[in-house]
Amino acid sequence: MARGNGKRYDETFKNETVKYIAENHKPIAQVARETGVNTNTLHGWIKKYGQQPEIKAIQTFPSPEAELRALQKEMLDLKEENEILKKAMNYFAKSPR
């Protein structure tokens, strides 16, 4: 099965789109319709470019509760990644060379 429509976007467009989403607090689905970019693609861009300092600086939370939820989600993600790394470390430590 063919994947995607084969469109290529330059780094500047990707970065500016992620910045636009962060500044305007718009739903990703709406931005996807506005730009013609697939929602899954936008999620990937946010994951890749959203941690850059200039984008992180503009990401503000509308309430302390929203910030708490975001931090709790990040903590759960980090715990999950840590567990995966532990399992991988155990697997490679046990496997014969």
From TrEMBL:
Q: Name one Pfam family in it.
A: HTH_Tnp_1
Domain of life, source organism: Bacteria
PANTHER family per UniProt:
PROTEIN DISTAL ANTENNA
Q: What is this protein called?
A: Transposase
